[in-house]
Design a protein that fits this description.
single chain, mainly alpha, about 85% helix, globular
């Protein structure tokens, strides 16, 4: 039941940011599904490994691949779909805990939550980079193969 509530919160956060970015209709449904997939992937990996970095990294790769595919289907830029889908992954709680401990002058906790925050944000960025690069390679290879076939037919 706890995971269901978390996934529903992810769906509503994706919908909320879709409204904020003026995304409507079919694209909003895509972002809502993407929000659920994002948090679902995170929960699956985290419960299996207890590793926040790995959970953020894999969940980001999954949602980036989903966003790339759905952007082509919806004929929209990837970033339009990706940003609301990634909202559940934003490590706001760790940022808050780091800042509150900074204000309270607890340097050990600031370092702990700062390190955790950097790891989570780094995992998200790295996941985006890996899938984006892989997608660019796939598209270039596809275009090259298509061009090669066209030349060989002539």
């Amino acid at each position: 039941m706890e995971y269901f509530v978390q996934i529903m919160a992810a769906i509503f956060s994706a919908i909320g940011f879709s409204l904020l970015f003026n995304i409507h209709g079919r694209k909003m449904i895509i972002t809502a599904v993407g929000g659920a997939i994002t948090w679902g992937a995170y929960l699956i990996v985290f419960t299996q490994t207890d590793n926040v970095f790995l959970a953020c990294f894999i969940a980001t790769m999954v949602i980036m691949a989903f966003a790339e595919i759905m952007a082509r289907i919806a004929k929209t830029p990837v970033i339009i779909l990706l940003v609301p889908m990634l909202v559940p992954m934003v490590p706001g709680g760790d940022l808050y805990r780091m800042m509150i401990n900074l204000v309270m002058d607890d340097s050990d906790q600031v370092r702990f939550f700062g390190y955790k925050l950097v790891m989570e944000v780094g995992a998200i960025a790295f996941g985006i980079i890996v899938i984006s690069t892989a997608m660019q390679l796939i598209l270039k290879m596809h275009a090259h193969i298509k061009e090669t076939r066209k030349v060989s037919k002539v």
